[in-house]
Amino acid sequence: MPDLASDRKSSVLRTATLGDLRTLQHVAILKDTASVGDCLKTLAAHRIVSAPVVVATKEDEHPGPVWHFKKAPEDVLGFVDIKDVIHCFLEDVKDTGILEYPSMLKKMRALEQKGTAFSHRTIRELHLTGGDGCFLHVGQQAVNLFELAHGYLLNPSRCGAQGSEGRPAIHRIAIFDSSGRIVNIISQSDIVRYLLEHVDKMSDAASQTIADLGMATKQLITVPPEKSAVEALKIMEDNNVGAVAVVNSEGQIVGTFSATDMRTITQEHFGSLALPVGEFLALEHGTEYSGYTIASETAVQGTDAHAFARDRLGRVALPGAEVGQSLVVCGPLTTLKGVMSLLTRNRVHRTFVVDENMKPVSVISCTDILRKLCQIEQ
Questions:
Q1: What residue ranges define each of the domains in the chain, with the CATH number in brackets?
Q2: CA distance 38 to 124
Q3: Facing residues of 176 across strands?
Q4: What is the Cβ-side half-sphere exposure of residue 202, based on CA atoms within 13 angstroms?
Q5: Where is the signal peptide (predicted)?
């Protein structure tokens, strides 16, 4: 009979440490005096969804919204991420009736106006620093990956992560040195990538299918491509999910919409949230006009242009091509190792599980993977 206790002690989750994950980094850090507009520009420039926020002081000799990463701040507020920004913006428009405007053009202009005013406000003013991250001293780099995942990322209330009330998990940890400088950001994706690189030291779960592991039945939220992007964001907010599957009238997945798709949005782009989510994604990913608006406008129905837009659905061969995405999907019989490889290779946080007809049945994220592996290790 195998010695399970011995196997747990020798697994990579138990033997690898935070120190093994650390690499040389240039960490983007924002000041709490940065405007929302500058915050979005900084996130977009670094193609990240989150950044630590520090308290700006009168002695700070570096102008601009970004804190000089080589200087130790007097105080750290937490993290700001794109989901915090979206949440605050949706709160701003919640009681305005903008989401109910039947005219896309009217909705677009209203969102542009709201977005301009919103972008001029500061992180400090909006209390934008949430709890999607915690902080560890570099002296704690001997913490093993199981403790890091189970004790911090998956149970943020245990480590006192700011604003973690009701948050099922956090996605990143900032490492600070003895002088108080933030020198590293370690994410869930970093842990999954490291585990994949050392998959020979993982438990047998790596070779099991996600169906056998019970990971192919997670509740899924979907939206049609005609739904406006801002309404899709509201649905994500109301259901406390980080992504939705965009599905056509047959229920087949044609794209995914998540916070990651918002990481390049800047002040002047708030109006584009009035676009149908399928069209928003197509523009975001640099593909041709997808035809969602023209396919639904009564004024052009029956024209050659309308027929071309509708027929385009049947000409798209690759999943996600319709909205300019390379969809990262798997099936219930994909192994856990296969899912980890998909996420790591494509640098994404989640993959949708689809059936043989490309209909999404579940979704698996880095959080789900770490939670399953920690359950097995316990």
A1: 4-202 (3.10.580.10), 222-377 (3.10.580.10)
A2: 13
A3: 137, 182
A4: 24
A5: none
- The distance of Cα 180 from the centroid of its chain, to the nearest Å, equals 27
What is the pLDDT confidence band of residue 233, given thresholds at 50, 70 and 90?
very high
Straight-line distance from the first to the last Cα atom of the chain, in angstroms, rounded to the nearest whole number = 19
Collapsed DSSP state (helix, strand, coil) of residue 225: coil
**pLDDT(89) > 50:** yes
- What stretch of H or E contains 136? strand 134-137
Helix (H, G, I), strand (E, B) or coil at 250: coil
Q: How far is residue 336's CA from residue 328's CA, in Å, rounded to a whole number?
A: 14
Alpha helices by DSSP H, listed for the chain, are 4-10, 12-15, 18-21, 36-46, 82-93, 104-119, 123-126, 145-148, 188-197, 229-239, 277-284, 292-296, 304-315, 336-346, 366-377
Instruction: Report the distance separating Cα 111 and Cα 265, nearest Å.
Output: 13
Q: Provide the pLDDT for residue 213.
A: 95
Sequence-ordered list of residues with C-beta below 8 angstroms from that of 295, at least 6 positions apart, any chain = 306, 309, 310
